[in-house]
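Long-time lurker, first post.

We've been arguing in lab meeting about whether zinc ion would sit comfortably in this protein at all. Half the group thinks yes, half thinks no, and nobody has a model to point at. So I'm putting the question to the forum: if I give you the sequence and the SMILES, can you give me back a predicted structure of the complex? Inputs are below. Any interpretation is welcome too.
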Amino acid sequence: MMDVATEEIVDARSGDPKARAAPVACIDLDRFCGNCGYNLRTLPVCRDNHTGIPVVRCTECGRFQSANDASTALRPWLDRLTLFLLGGWVLFLVAVFAHLCLAEGAVSYANLDELTEHEGSSIRRIGNTTIRGWVNASAPLEVTTEYPEYEFFIASILFGSFMIAFTCGLFAVIAMPHWHRAAYAGLMLAMPVIAGVVVAVLWKYDAPHLFLWGMPYIAAHAGAQLLGGLAGIAFGRPLGRLAVRVFLPPSVRPRVAFIWLAAGQPVPRSRVDPRPAAANATAGR
Ligand SMILES: [Zn+2]
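Top reply:
Settle the argument with this. Predicted structure of the protein with zinc ion, as tokens:
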């Protein structure tokens, strides 16, 4: 189907290989070489002088192929399926960030709850089942004095906050590579603020006499979450690229080329070939 020869496109009149047609466009989405699977994104599209058909040359294996493959009866159905899947992807992203925001609030509230004494015990009864509550059933009465391992507890739970937000930042820069840096930072700021405000309102309702005592903890968690989110933005893509290198063989790396392209780096090579080492050295860093 796309079995075009690998010779240079030559000028039809002069027959000179150097008089190749100028690029008319470039591939601006993930397209894969029919021969070797290399991601053709960013490669120039030229018009074949004999036929006028736009073609792209794979820089990996040298094969020419049509730059346009919207030609089969299956195509309209694939487009519809794509639309459906894109809708599902948007809902998935919204759900992920909503749950991570919820987790940021939950860890902050759990901190307040853990440091306070409750009326009765922290054991919750539902019917005949006894559950030792993660969040206590009854309202907080007073702050626990002489909490064992206080520093260790605070350090651990703040680190938990940091890591939840780090996951957010990492996920954002990889799942939404089209955003600007400022937009990621805005999201990483908005999530702890929303979580913190919700926790403050809940805490005000649950323990109004301990509201002011709780505020520094809520603020500390929001701060840890902001730092975690910013660290996730900074290290998300390098970690993503490392994970791709560790877990995926070279042949499928072009499928996730966007992690490189989003950072303005060359698409990784899909296999090792005897091309000059200089070209190898710059690829896929
Ligand atoms: Zn190829």
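For your lab meeting: The CA atoms of residues 124 and 267 lie 55 Å apart. DSSP finds six helices and eight strands in the chain. Whichever side wins, do check it experimentally.
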